[in-house]
Structure formats: C-alpha cells, structure tokens
C-alpha cells in the first residue's frame, strides 16, 4: 500500500482546500454583454474597475462583437478562397523581376518565330 493513497500529487492544505475566493479574497465583478452582427450575445464576467473593451470575439461565431446592442460591429467582408490575390501576384511571388523579364523575352521570341514561320 502507498502512503499517498487518496491524495494527488501536489496536494497540500495550503492549495487544496477551500474555494479560490476564500484563498485570495473576492474581487468585485460585473457581467458585460457583447453583441455581434448576427445577433448573438456573449456575456463575460469582468472586474468592476476594468475598462470595457470596444470589441470582443463572439462566443458563437467568432466575429467581432461590441457592447452596444443597437449598433453591433459591421459584418466583416468575406475573404476570397485564394486570399484575394490575382494570378499576377502569384507569379510575382514565385519569380524575381529579372526572372520575369527573362520569361517574357523568351515568350516574345517564340511568338515572333511563329509569326515569321506563317
């Protein structure tokens, strides 16, 4: 049999008994509600002397929520699946300007050769 039967590692009288409010004292708090553009309500307990933030993530959809129910933050613009980049931007990510000039020169050379052959 073990001498530690029925207790957990790290347990002691100082840390293992009572509620946190008894150990550390109670702090005055208040409930603050935030509303997102979808109409979801997120309620958060904050310290009474804490400033209310202008934005808080919605607990339901993750969008920004504000403390004013009549004027919640606007709906965010949807992000395109490609991140809003154009094909040219993707090309510029893969090649340096010098490589781009070289590829363009090769393409123009092939185009001129094809036109001369016709």
Overview of this structure, please?
The chain has 118 residues and is an alpha+beta fold. Among the domains are: 26-74, RNA polymerase-binding protein A (Rubrerythrin, domain 2), CATH 2.20.28; 87-117, no CATH class. 32% of the residues lie in helices and 17% in strands. It contains four helices and four strands, in the order H-H-E-E-E-E-H-H. It has helices at residues 13-16, 20-24, 87-94, 97-117, and strands spanning 29-36, 41-47, 56-57, 64-66. It has a four-stranded antiparallel β-sheet, with no helix packed on it. Strand 3 and strand 4 form a beta hairpin. The mean pLDDT is 84.
Task: Give the secondary structure arrangement, pairings included.
Elements: H1 13-16, H2 20-24, E1 29-36, E2 41-47, E3 56-57, E4 64-66, H3 87-94, H4 97-117
Antiparallel strand pairs: 1-2, 1-4, 3-4
In short:
The chain is of the alpha+beta class.
Widest sheet: strand order? 2-1-4-3
Category from helices, strands and their pairing:
alpha+beta
| Quaternary structure annotation | single chain
Question: Which blocks of ≥5 consecutive residues have pLDDT under 50?
Answer: none
In percent, how much strand structure appears in the residues? 15-25%
Q: What is the helix content? A: 25-40%
Cα distance, first to last residue? 97 Å
Major β-sheet annotation: 4 strands, antiparallel
Overall mean pLDDT: 84
């Amino acid at each position: 049999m073990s001498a530690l039967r029925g207790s957990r590692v790290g347990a002691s009288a100082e840390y293992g008994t009572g509620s946190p409010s008894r150990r550390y004292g109670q702090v005055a708090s208040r409930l603050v509600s935030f509303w997102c553009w979808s109409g979801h309500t997120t309620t958060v307990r904050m310290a009474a002397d804490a400033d209310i933030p202008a934005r808080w993530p919605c607990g339901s959809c993750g969008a920004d929520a504000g403390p004013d129910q009549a004027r919640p933050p606007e709906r965010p613009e949807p992000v395109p699946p490609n991140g809003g980049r154009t094909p040219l931007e993707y090309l510029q990510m893969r090649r340096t300007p010098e490589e781009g000039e070289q590829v363009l020169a090769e393409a123009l050379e092939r185009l001129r050769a094809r036109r001369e052959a016709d």
